[in-house]
Design brief:
Helix content: 40-55%
Oligomer: single chain
CATH class of the largest domain: Alpha Beta
CATH topology of the largest domain: Collagenase (Catalytic Domain)
CATH architecture of the largest domain: 3-Layer(aba) Sandwich
Structural class: mainly alpha
Number of strands: 8
Largest sheet: 3 strands, mixed
Shape: globular
C-alpha cells in the first residue's frame, strides 16, 4: 500500500467537506442562444440612456431583532447566513437592500444539498453537472483510455469489500516504524531525505515546480513553509471560533486514527501536545493567511537562492539534500518563499525539539489515511466533517467516488467532458465575447484621466498580450503513461493513488530547467464552475464548466447572460489590473511598468476601496470586515460590472432591470454559520451580499434604473464611490 501525496490527502478531506466544483458546460441546444448573445454584441451600437425606476419595491418590515442587528451589521445585514431571512420578517425594498429584495423568495425555501455547506447558484450548478459527469463513470459504452482509467478508479473507491479486506493498518504501521525509531537529529535527517519519506511519509517542507515570477517562461523550484494543522499561522497566537472548529475536527481525526494504529489515549494526548508545541514555535515565523494574500506578498515571497545560499540559511536542516531526493537540486532557478521561516526551522532543528517534530510527522502520516483505509474510518471522517461544518446530510458514496476521480484525474475527466458536451462553435463564440470585453477595456484604459500616456500605453500593451483560453484546450497533455487498472487486474485504491503520485512527480522532475510551453493550458480541469486569470502567464481562462445555470442559460435574454457569464468575463480580465495583477507585465513577469505618480494614484484609489469595505460589519458583534483581504476580488467585481455596462450602452433597448437582477441572482447563496465564519476569516472574496450591493451602488445606471436617491440604503454619493477603474 502506498500513500497518496500530501496534496492529495488534504484534497480528499476537503473534497469530503464540500464536493468538487464540477459541471458540464453548454448543452448542444445552448448554441443558438450563445450565437444570439454574441450577435447582439456585434450588431448593436446605438447609445441609450438608462430609464427611470422599473423595479418593484418590497415592504420594509424589520422586527426588533433586525433593528438591533442593523446597529452592528452595516450598512446591510449579513443575509447569506442560512435562516437570517427565512426566520425573520426582513423584507427590504430594492432601494435599500437589492440583494435580499431580488433573492428573498428563493431564500425562503433554500435548502442545503447533501454534503454542501452552501446553497445557491454555484452549488446548484455543481450538483447538477456533477451528476451528469458521474453518469460517465458508469457508462459501459465508453471505452477510451480516459474513460477506462476514470471508471477503474471510481470502482476501486466504491469497492468496500476489497478495501475492508486489506491489512491497511499493518501497512500504516510499516510507514510509521522508521519515524518512531528515530532517536537523534541525524537519524531524523536521514529519514526526511529518504525516498521512503518522499513517497510514503510526510515532511516539514513542501516543494513544487511552477513558472518563475520574474522569468515566467522558465520553471522554478518553489520551497514552501511547514503545513500547519490550523492552516493559518495567526490561529496559534489568537485562536478564533473558526480556528477552534478546525482544531476540534483535526483532533478528532488524530484521536481516531492514532487509536487505530495502537496508541492509548494518554499517549495520544502527549503526542498532540508535542505536535502543537512544535507547530506553535514554527508558526511564529510563517506568513499568515492575510499576509500571504496582500499585494506586497508577491515581492516578499520572491527570494531567488542558490544551493549554496540555501545551505548557508539552513546548515542544520538538510534542505539541499531534500531537493536532491525530490529530483530538483539541479534547477537553475530556486525560490524560497519565506526565508525567515527557514532560518527559524533551522534553529528549531535540535534535539530539544526532536519529539515535537516526530509527533508532527506521526500525526500527519496517520491522519492522512482516514479517507483511504476502510469503510469504518471513512464513516468516522464523514461524521467529523458533518459536525465541523454544521450540516445534517452528507454526500453519497458515489458522489465522493466521483469527487476523488475528478480531483486526481482531472485532465481525463475534462477530456471526457469536452468530447461529450463542447464544440468548436461554442469555443469560437465565447472567444468572440471575450474579445468584445477586451475591446471595452482597451477603450476604458485609453480614456482613464488619471493615467499618464506612458503608463497608459504599457497597460494597453499588457491587455493586448492577454492570452485568451476559452472553453477547452486546443492541445492536451499526453497522459497515456498513467494507467489505472481494474481490481480484477490487480489494482487497489492505494496502488492507483501511488501511480498518480509518481506520475505527476515524474512530470515535475522532467520539467526542471525547461521552458514553459504555453501552448498547453496552466490547468486542464475545465469542469469546474469557475474561471481564472493567471498573472504570471497573463492569461484568462473562461472554461466550459461555468457555461450553465445562473451564469448562462439558453432561455435567458442577452441582458441576463451579460449579468451572468458577461460579468464573469469582465471580472477575470480586470484581474490583470488589480493590486496584484498590476505588478506583472505583459509577459507575466513581476516588473514595474507604472510611473511613480500613476502607481501612487492607483494605490490611493485602492486604499479608498479598502477603507470602504473595512467599514462593513458582518455580524452581531459589530466587528469590522477585512477590506484589505478582499481588495483584489472587489476591484475585479466592480470592473466586471462596469465592463458589461459599457457594452450595454451600445445595445439598443437594453433592459437594465434584467441585467442587475441577473447579477444579484448570480451571487444568491445561503450558508451555514460555520461556513460564513470561515469565509469571513480567510476568503479573498467578499461575502455574496456585498459582492452584489457594494458593487452595484457604484454605478449611475443602477441608481437611475431604480430611482435610488440619498436616504435609500443602496445610495452612495459620487464622492464616496470606490471603484478603482
Amino acid at each position: 500500500m502506498k500513500k497518496p501525496t500530501v496534496k492529495k490527502i488534504k484534497a480528499a478531506f476537503i473534497t469530503s467537506v464540500v464536493l468538487s466544483l464540477v459541471l458540464t458546460g453548454c448543452q448542444p441546444a445552448d448554441l443558438e442562444q450563445l450565437h444570439a448573445f454574441a450577435e447582439s454584441l456585434r450588431a448593436n451600437s446605438q447609445v441609450i440612456e438608462a430609464g427611470g425606476e422599473t423595479g418593484a419595491d418590497g415592504i420594509a418590515s424589520a422586527d426588533d431583532t433586525l433593528k438591533e442587528r442593523f446597529e452592528t451589521e452595516k450598512p446591510w445585514i449579513n443575509s447569506v447566513v442560512m435562516g437570517t431571512v427565512q426566520d425573520s420578517g426582513y423584507d427590504p425594498r430594492l432601494k435599500d437592500d437589492f440583494y435580499v429584495a431580488v433573492n428573498r423568495e428563493w431564500m425562503q425555501t433554500a435548502r442545503l444539498l447533501p454534503g454542501y455547506t452552501t446553497a445557491g447558484s454555484f452549488a446548484d450548478l455543481n450538483y447538477q453537472r456533477q451528476h451528469e459527469l458521474m453518469a460517465l463513470m458508469t457508462d459501459e459504452s465508453l471505452t477510451g483510455e480516459d474513460a477506462v482509467k476514470c471508471q477503474n478508479l471510481y470502482n476501486l473507491w466504491l469497492d468496500w469489500d476489497a478495501r475492508n479486506s486489506y491489512d491497511n493498518i499493518g501497512e500504516i504501521k510499516k510507514y510509521l516504524a522508521p519515524v518512531t525509531a528515530i532517536s537523534s537529529i541525524d537519524e531524523l535527517s536521514d529519514y526526511l531525505v529518504s525516498e521512503d519519506c518522499w513517497y510514503n511519509g510526510y515532511n516539514i517542507v513542501s516543494v513544487s515546480l511552477r513558472p518563475d515570477n520574474k522569468e515566467s517562461d522558465k520553471y522554478a523550484v518553489q520551497i514552501y513553509s511547514t503545513d500547519l494543522t490550523l492552516d493559518d499561522p495567526a490561529e496559534y497566537e489568537n485562536l478564533t471560533d473558526n480556528g477552534k472548529r478546525v482544531k476540534e475536527a483535526a483532533d478528532a481525526v488524530s484521536h481516531y486514527m492514532l487509536g487505530r494504529v495502537g496508541y492509548g489515549e494518554e499517549d495520544i494526548e502527549a503526542l498532540l501536545t508535542a505536535k502543537y508545541d512544535f507547530e506553535t514555535k514554527i508558526a511564529a515565523s510563517e506568513m499568515t493567511v492575510e499576509e500571504a494574500n496582500m499585494p506586497d506578498a508577491i515581492n516578499l515571497t520572491y527570494n531567488p537562492v542558490t544551493l549554496e545560499e540555501l545551505s548557508g540559511l539552513s546548515p542544520d536542516f538538510p534542505i539541499t539534500e531534500l531537493l536532491e531526493t525530490a529530483g530538483m537540486a539541479e534547477s537553475k532557478l530556486i525560490n524560497l518563499n519565506e526565508p525567515e521561516w527557514l532560518r527559524e526551522l533551522n534553529k528549531l532543528y535540535t534535539a530539544e525539539n526532536l519529539e515535537g517534530i516526530k509527533a508532527y510527522l506521526i500525526d500527519r502520516i496517520v491522519s492522512g489515511y482516514i479517507s483511504y483505509i476502510d469503510e469504518e474510518a471513512y464513516r468516522v471522517s464523514q461524521d467529523i466533517i458533518r459536525k465541523r461544518n454544521g450540516i445534517t446530510e452528507l454526500s453519497s458514496d458515489e458522489e465522493m467516488a466521483y469527487a476523488i476521480v475528478s480531483e486526481n484525474l482531472s485532465s481525463s475527466v475534462a477530456r471526457m467532458f469536452a468530447d461529450k458536451y463542447m464544440t468548436a462553435e461554442i469555443k469560437d463564440e465565447i472567444t468572440y465575447i471575450i474579445n468584445e470585453a477586451v475591446d471595452y477595456y482597451r477603450n476604458m484604459l485609453a480614456e482613464v484621466d488619471w493615467l499618464s500616456q506612458e503608463t497608459r500605453e504599457k497597460a494597453i500593451e499588457k491587455l493586448d498580450h492577454i492570452g485568451i483560453n476559452a472553453v477547452y484546450p486546443d492541445k492536451w497533455e499526453d497522459q497515456s503513461g498513467l494507467v489505472i487498472l481494474s481490481k480484477d487486474e490487480g489494482e487497489t485504491l492505494l496502488s492507483a493513488m501511488d501511480k498518480i503520485t509518481r506520475f505527476y512527480d515524474a512530470r515535475s522532475r522532467s520539467r526542471v530547467n525547461t521552458e514553459v510551453d504555453r501552448t498547453y493550458w496552466m490547468t486542464e480541469d475545465i469542469t469546474q464552475v469557475n474561471s481564472f486569470y493567471y498573472p504570471n502567464t497573463n492569461e484568462i481562462y473562461i472554461i466550459g464548466g461555468i457555461l450553465g445555470g445562473d451564469f448562462y442559460d439558453v432561455n435567458r435574454s442577452i441582458e441576463e447572460n451579460m449579468g451572468g457569464i458577461g460579468a464573469v468575463i469582465g471580472h477575470e480580465l480586470s484581474h490583470a489590473f488589480d493590486t496584484r495583477g498590476a505588478q506583472y507585465d505583459k509577459d507575466g513577469n513581476v516588473a514595474n511598468w507604472w510611473s511613480d505618480e500613476d502607481y501612487s494614484t492607483f494605490q490611493k484609489r485602492a486604499d479608498k476601496l479598502i477603507d470602504y469595505m473595512s467599514n462593513m460589519t458582518v455580524d452581531e458583534s459589530g466587528k469590522n470586515y477585512n477590506g484589505a483581504m478582499v481588495q483584489t476580488e472587489t476591484i475585479a467585481d466592480m470592473a466586471g460590472v462596469k465592463c458589461m455596462l459599457g457594452l450595454a450602452s451600445k445595445i439598443d433597448g437594453f433592459d437594465y432591470d434584467k441585467f442587475f437582477k441577473s447579477y444579484a441572482r448570480l451571487w444568491k447563496s445561503q450558508s451555514t454559520k460555520e461556513r460564513v465564519d470561515m469565509l469571513t476569516a480567510v476568503d479573498v472574496h467578499a461575502l455574496d451580499y456585498l459582492r452584489t450591493n457594494a458593487v452595484l451602488q457604484q454605478y449611475d445606471e443602477f441608481l437611475d434604473t431604480y430611482g435610488i436617491k440619498e436616504g435609500d440604503g443602496m445610495y452612495l454619493a459620487p464622492k464616496d464611490r470606490v471603484a478603482v477603474w
